[in-house]
Amino acid sequence: MWGLRPHSPAELGTIRGIPGHAEWATEIGASRPTSRTDAVAEIRPVWQVVRYLRELIAHDKALSDLWVGGEITNLTAASSGHLYFTLKDQGGQLRCVFFRSANVGQRNLVANGASLIVHGAVTVYEQRGDIQLMVDFVQPAGVGAQQAEFERRKARFEAEGLFDPARKRALPRFPRRIGVVTSARGAAFHDIQTVLERRWPLATIVFRPAIVQGEEAAVSVAEAVREIAPVRASPDRWPDVLIVGRGGGANDDLSAFNEEPVVRAIFGCPIPVVSAVGHETDVTLADLVADVRAPTPSAAAELVAPDRLDIARRIEALRSRQDVRITRAIASARDSVLRTATGMGRRLPDTAPLHRRVALNTDAMRHQLLRATSEARERIAGSVHRLEALSPVATLDRGYALVSRADGSPASRAAEVAAGDAITVRWGDGSHSAHVDARVESSP
Q1: Interatomic CA distance for residues 103 and 83, integer angstroms
Q2: Does residue 186 share a domain with residue 103?
Q3: In this structure, is residue 323 part of a structural domain?
Q4: Is residue 158 exposed (0-12), middle (13-18) or buried (19+ Cβ within 10 Å)?
Q5: Sheet containing 204-209: which strands, arranged edge to edge?
Q6: Domain count for the chain
Q7: pTM reported for the whole predicted model
Q8: By the 8 A CB rule, do 141 and 68 touch?
Q9: How many other C-beta atoms can be found within 10 angstroms of the C-beta atom of residue 247?
Q10: In this predicted model, what pLDDT tens digit does every residue of 93-142 receive, in sequence order?
């Protein structure tokens, strides 16, 4: 069933990880007595033989990750919570132990007569020398081995909190950079590109190709997820969100997304992750650990990218509603001011008589002011006329002259100047400089 065969003495002596047994293993095969006259081989203690068998079994990978199907018998439930039972079929039986730390949530499946498939590792219980299966997961019979392995991993990851809804992160509303991990040759990446270009061309696509099918797929996908947002890089250089997935296929084609490396890589990704594996009916462990599950790669692109046309319509609707609100607010404020003014007007006293009195007094004051102004103007005109009559200039205009000495002082008498003095003679229309030649006596 598992390709097991007896080991030769030489092979037993070269099993790695079991130090000190090489010579013993060779000795077991080489020193076996062939007749009564041969020397008796060295006698080994029981504990040494049992421990050797335990280590031999522990280093056989086929026995450390084993699925076994059979019927439950001799079930014993210890007070500690451990379950002990025998798993048998028509050809043999195998003792099993299901420790309390592993059987939480599965105890009700283990009952005498129940047909189960169980997962665990074969070991040797040294105190009794029994070979037993240390069980870590059980599943009712009739479930395929692949589905049973899926359920086992699911239960383990769920117990570790990898699927806890409380740790799920919300997707960014307006991503600037969108990471994508999928095959470079599949239709999934083309579908994602098409949707993103149509809905949100403002975003930049950060693509990391990966193998999504086959033995190397799990490691390839996990490495691509870690490279898309490396811890060593600045968060400013990370994408805002990541899409991980592939197109549809058979269950075997999608098995990479149930592998532990992929699940742990998605769990440890520092940015929100959308899982888009297969079709809507396909559910993988990557879907359960991701922040959001999308039924298809195209649906994942629609989840991470808003529709620009819808955003434009919403902005226009908001603008229209805001205009309506502003118009209503202005109208309401205007009505409020009018109502306030009207109310204030009703509460104020009647000022019409006061207005009439003010108007009458204003007219009377205007008339008085006009009359006073006219009288003042007449008085000023009379004063000007009298001043003009007394002005020397008016006298000069009548033919008289004004004589001034050189220092500008007037000479009103002939005795005030002498021969040789410089004088200025001013008439009404101008003046001349002159010198006194001689004094002329006036006739009586």
Answers
A1: 8
A2: no
A3: no
A4: middle
A5: 204-209, 177-182, 241-246, 273-277, 292-293
A6: 5
A7: 0.52
A8: no
A9: 22
A10: 899 999 998 888 888 888 888 888 888 899 988 888 888 999 988 888 76
